[in-house]
Design a protein that fits this description.
Length: 360
């Protein structure tokens, strides 16, 4: 085989790898869709958008807005400062930082991730204001998308790629997964989440593992990191000011409250130049974040209410089953009370483990 043919074959293998990766994500999404876990699927795989007919389509061309954390992290100096704070290093040249841009953001409305490379180490940082145990799954997808782009040289606009089926070992950056949590729900100062925790069949020796460290950056938490990274501390000051001004929770006043927080920070030299430059973008981004969090709370409240209704219904049915079994209530009346037919009531009664009385 000629070198040219080998090159073509290498590209074919690479294309197959990229396709297989997308196929894997698609099948995992389908798995959860079939189990009627749309809430999980849309949070983990928002690139799959559900249609009105109940199906879904890929939204690879969707434009994602960045949240404030992600916007701040697009600056190499800030990225390097946070990297040093997290790793105890002392890199001082921002040009050592290579910002990694990918089109696989995982958020319902706002991109909240930031990825960059320093000294062959790939840092994938994400900001979260809500508790999410699925971060290792999300991180795996981030890494897979970034790695696929790297291997195909997509970011350079070339078609060469790297032959991952060749005899030479293809080196990849060492990944590091971190989440910065600043939600209002109480959480540990530091916690480690593992991909294997999500496996339906637990194993002591998983063939695939991914560890994700979650750092709480609220007031009084992880002081060493906050003191070492001034802009991250300033960012939390801004977030806390928004919360302070928006304490009443009136949604119509949200934009005004965000503007007040921006004015306060500018007046007190907190992220001053950034907020002056990106004032409009920051306001819109914070609004989207609040809308997203509010939607999650509404969905959670609906789920709790639905669960309570189901529980009440089951409790009432159990009482009816007991009364029928003890002969204190005839089955026709019990079925009427339950709002079902007699045959359906008998079926429910049997499924619940109660003996259906014989009809005379």
């Amino acid at each position: 085989m000629s070198s040219g043919d080998k090159g073509v074959q290498g590209l074919q293998y690479l294309n197959y790898f990229s396709y297989s990766l997308k196929f894997l994500l698609l099948n995992v999404s389908l798995f959860y869709l079939k189990q009627d876990k749309r809430g999980f699927t849309t949070q983990i795989f928002p690139a799959f958008v559900f249609s009105n007919e109940g199906g879904f389509y890929m939204s690879g061309n969707r434009e994602y807005k960045s949240d404030v954390f992600s916007m701040l992290m697009q600056d190499k100096e800030r990225a390097l400062q946070l990297y040093n704070a997290m790793n105890g290093s002392s890199y001082d040249n921002p040009e050592d930082v290579e910002i990694v841009i990918h089109d696989g953001g995982i958020s319902l409305s706002v991109r909240n991730d930031a990825s960059f490379i320093v000294d062959a180490r790939l840092s994938i940082y994400e900001h979260q204001s809500t508790v999410c145990p699925n971060m290792p799954v999300r991180s795996l997808i981030y890494f897979s998308v970034i790695l696929s782009d790297m291997l195909s040289d997509k970011k350079k606009g070339t078609k060469s790629g790297k032959n991952i089926y060749g005899r030479r070992l293809v080196k990849i950056p060492t990944p590091h997964f971190v989440v910065f949590y600043n939600g209002e729900e109480e959480q540990p100062e530091v916690q480690e989440l593992k991909l294997s925790d999500a496996f339906e069949k637990p194993t002591d020796e998983p063939n695939l593992e991914l560890k994700c460290k979650v750092y709480n950056i609220n007031d009084g938490k992880n002081k060493a990191i906050m003191e070492s990274c001034g802009w991250l501390n300033d960012y939390m000051t801004f977030v806390n000011k928004v919360r302070e001004y928006h304490a009443d929770g009136a949604f119509d006043d949200l934009a005004i409250d965000i503007e007040k927080a921006i004015d306060y920070c500018i007046d007190n030299d907190i992220l001053k130049e950034f907020l002056k430059t990106y004032r409009s973008e920051v306001t819109k981004s914070m609004q989207l974040n609040y809308e997203f969090d509010r939607q999650l709370e509404l969905e959670r409240a609906d789920a709790i209410e639905e669960g309570m209704e189901i529980g009440i219904e089951k409790g009432a049915n159990k009482m009816l089953f007991t009364l029928v079994t003890k002969g204190k209530l005839d089955i026709d009346t019990a079925a009427e009370e339950a709002g079902v037919s007699v045959s359906e009531f008998e079926k429910l009664m049997s499924e619940a483990g109660y003996k259906v009385p014989e009809t005379v």
